[in-house]
Amino acid sequence: MQSQDAQRAVSRVCIKAGQILLQHGAESALVVDITGRLGRALGVDSVEVSLSASSMVLTTLSEDHCITTARRCPDRGINMQMVTEVQRLCIMAEHGILDRRSVKEKLDKLNPMRYNRWLVLGMIGASCAAFSRIAGGDLAVMSMTFLASCCGMFARQELGHRHFNPLLNFGITAFITTCVAALSVRLNIGNQPFLVMASSVLMLVPGFPLINAVSDMVKGFINMGIARFTMATLLTLSTCLGIVVAMNLFDVWGWLQ
């Protein structure tokens, strides 16, 4: 039999795990599954979870006694390392390796792993340059794509570090990237300079949120799916606005060629 104090502690551990998962981009089905498995592993009979775009409500049931708690879940950026760590703790609890206190301590100590920012810049630039090459660009086009995407990614990192609104972040990043890319069209650099404008902003495609949105709706989490799809759509709209403003500023309409 589990006391109410112990059940309350388990509820806090479960919602902490769910909060971390939701904040770092896990799909809704995974959040519900992990919190339920973790709660049962720590001694409660069942766990019920209700999710929204920025918060979650969790109820544990033990000996016909319910305890409900709620948490806000502000977005912390997509980070699968954090999701994997929480899954690992859940599996360890299921196998009896960790108890409630150990799980809580490890959850409190979790910190997102961050790649070196210069490595990220280089890889983003290289990936966008590769897209321009696939589309038929020569070395000059690849070089300009690399430069434009690196400039945009640098701006995106700086804005993110200063906690700007994601919509503003995407819009400014798209504007800066397109401004640099427009130079290749103005100066007629490479065999197909308009490819720079198309390839350099591919880093702003919100692929992961869109995939999660569709996955949530298919698996029955309609509200979460709609919320995530709306956010991904707004990010895309902000990106388009940034691109259009830059193209108007330079009077370069490279994508229309």
Structure characterization notes:
- With 257 residues, the protein is mainly α.
- It has two domains: 4-109; 117-256, no CATH class.
- Helices cover 65% and strands 9% of the residues.
- The chain is built from ten helices and three strands, in the order H-H-E-E-E-H-H-H-H-H-H-H-H.
- It has helices at 4-23, 28-41, 80-94, 100-109, 117-134, 139-161, 166-186, 194-199, 207-218, 222-250; strands at residues 46-51, 55-62, 65-72.
- A three-stranded antiparallel sheet has the order 1-2-3, covered by helices on one side.
- A hairpin with a 3-residue loop joins strand 1 (46-51) and strand 2.
- Helix 1 (4-23) packs parallel to helix 4, helix 5 (117-134) packs antiparallel against helix 6 (139-161) and helix 6 (139-161) packs antiparallel against helix 7.
- The longest helix has 29 residues, at 222-250.
- The protein is elongated and about 75 Å long.
- The model has no long low-confidence stretch (mean pLDDT 91).
What about the largest sheet? 3 strands, antiparallel
Mean pLDDT: 91
Rough outline: elongated
- The helicity comes to 55-70%
| Rg | 23 Å
Count the strands? 3
The stretches of 5 or more residues where confidence is low (pLDDT under 50) are: none
Content-based structural category: mainly alpha
Q: What is the distance, rounded to the nearest whole angstrom, between the alpha carbons of the first and last residues?
A: 72 Å
User: Could you spell the SSE succession in H and E letters?
Assistant: HHEEEHHHHHHHH
Number of domain modules? 2
Number of helices: 10
If strands are numbered along the chain, what order do they take across the biggest sheet?
Answer: 1-2-3
* β-strand amount: 5-15%
